Amino acid sequence: NAGVTQTPKFQVLKTGQSMTLQCAQDMNHNSMYWYRQDPGMGLRLIYYSASEGTTDKGEVPNGYNVSRLNKREFSLRLESAAPSQTSVYFCASGGQSSLETQYFGPGTRLLVL
Amino acid sequence: AQSVAQPEDQVNVAEGNPLTVKCTYSVSGNPYLFWYVQYPNRGLQFLLKYITGDNLVKGSYGFEAEFNKSQTSFHLKKPSALVSDSALYFCAVRPSGGYNKLIFGAGTRLAVHP
């Protein structure tokens, strides 16, 4: 099992460009999450999906959209990138129960110029 | 507001010495508590969690953590540090009753010196 995979690993964008970050998991988890990691701020939740067909905003959703394509895949889209979105983005998945651990992908490093 | 605090940006320890990485939390109800580790250019790896029961929780790589309800703390410990333990450590809390959302601390960088 690959666990949680993310593409791309690294991306450079110009301000105003758009892109989609891809995430897939093979652990049959119902829940999936997108976080961003910034120095000194830990991880902050952008959006999450409790199950296929549902999505909800997290702590910092502005400037992002998500799509839960199916149970395995959860994508994050930046419609018009801004320098403030320069960050490392992590996708995670977890079971339905609130007791279950979240498992993280390797991350996507995004630089917006 | 619900929050997690990791009061130390960095902890320095000599190899072979015991280590402690501190975490305190502020949430309503009974929290579920987690520790994750991040090695350079890698994603977060799960170390251990406290849900209920024994206050001392044992996890991966010889790490353990002690839940203290009265002090609202969940400090990470290891009896004998290794150079390979050098990494970024995150404490996280999942408030009870809330959905599967984790609140993360800012992280503590552990440096173990030979």
Can you put this structure into words, describing what you see?
- The complex is a heterodimer of chains A (113) and B (114).
- Chain A has 113 residues and is mainly beta.
- Helix content of chain A is 0%, strand content 50%.
- In chain A, strands 2, 4, 5, 6, 9, 10 and 11 form a seven-stranded mixed sheet that branches. In chain A, strands 1-3-8-7 form a four-stranded antiparallel sheet, with no helix packed on it.
- The mean pLDDT of chain A is 92.
- Chain B is mainly beta and 114 residues long.
- In chain B, a hairpin with a 5-residue loop joins strand 7 (56-58) and strand 8 (64-68).
- Chain B is globular, with a radius of gyration of 14 Å.
- The termini of chain B are far apart.
- The chains are: A mainly beta (113), B mainly beta (114).
- Chains A and B meet through strand 5, strand 9 and strand 10 of A and strand 5, strand 6 and strand 10 of B.
Structural class estimated from helices and strands of chain B: mainly beta
Q: Are there runs of chain B of 5+ residues with pLDDT below 50, and where?
A: none
Q: Which structural class do the helices and strands of chain A define? A: mainly beta
Major interchain interface with per-chain residue totals: A-B, 27 and 26 residues
* DSSP strand count of chain B: 12
End-to-end separation of chain A: 36 Å
Which value, in Å, is the CA radius of gyration of chain A?
13 Å
- The span between the termini of chain B is 41 Å
N to C succession of SSEs of chain B: EEEEEEEEEEEE
Number of helices of chain A: 0
Whole-number average pLDDT of chain A? 92
Q: What is the overall pLDDT average of chain B? A: 92
* Extended strand count of chain A: 11
Envelope shape of chain A = globular
Largest sheet of chain A: 7 strands, mixed
